[in-house]
Design a protein that fits this description.
Residues 1-116 form the Thiamine pyrophosphate enzyme N-terminal TPP-binding domain. The protein has a single domain, classed as Thiamin diphosphate (ThDP)-binding fold, Pyr/PP domains (Rossmann fold, 3-Layer(aba) Sandwich). The two termini are 26 Å apart. Strands 2-1-3-4 form a four-stranded parallel beta sheet, with helices on one face. Helix content is 43%, strand content 15%. By secondary structure, it is α/β, with parallel strands linked by helices. The longest helix has 15 residues, at 47-61.
Length: 124
Amino acid sequence: MNASELFVKALENEGVEYIFGIPGEENLDFLEALRTSNIKLILTRHEQGAGFMAATYGRLTGKVGVCLSTLGPGATNFATSAAYAQLGGMPMMMITGQKPIKKSKQGRFQIIDIVGMMKPMTKY
């Protein structure tokens, strides 16, 4: 069992039924693990929409709404929906991709401090 499979199992154990988001190179291993789970991936056209869908799902159901993006600009597109969820007290989990800096041929291209950026708008 790899880390992605373990992560998906943990999400299943927490009762996650849906993940809203966009597939990308950096989250393919996670998506492969998701493919064999009971969790349904709802494809969206934009990460911000995925965030709003997850936040609204959390608001309406009381369960954690989960959204998924790729790295860098994809993750920054969660900012507005993160603020929306935080201000409205809506339970939401945002999952973003990342790539290894030292192994990547592109170096630090599209790699930003997403945790630092989201800190003012999130609990953790």
